[in-house]
Amino acid sequence: MSGGRPEGFNELLHFPVRLSIVSLLAPAVHVEFSFLREATGLSDSALSKQLTSLQEAGYVEVRRTGRRATAALTAEGRRALAEHAAALRALLGTAFEEPPPESPADESLQR
């Protein structure tokens, strides 16, 4: 972990909108632009800007056929998403595990 961030942490993907986009692309081969727009609630221009950022990083491929556009996660994008997810799990550690049951001694400390 360097600078408080585990290895694989990806600043580009960590931005919530981009993380939502790659998460929507991950289980699919190609996703319609219109589906991404509706699922994210972004305007056409905002979605295009985010897809361009992801495309420039090599994480997303955008195909245009006439007026229709689709997006797909590249192999590099899948790898980056997997590494970022692993980094988030490492960062969170045991945060979502069940806490151990309280003992009577713990209760007396809270009073």
From TrEMBL:
TM annotation in the entry:
none
* Every HTH arsR-type domain range: 7-94
Q: Which InterPro entries match?
A: ArsR-like_HTH, HTH_ArsR_DNA-bd_dom, WH-like_DNA-bd_sf, WH_DNA-bd_dom, WH_DNA-bd_sf
Q: What domain of life? A: Bacteria
What single Pfam family name could you report for this chain, choosing any that match?
HTH_34
Q: Which protein is depicted?
A: HTH arsR-type domain-containing protein
Q: How far does the signal peptide extend, from start to end residue?
A: none
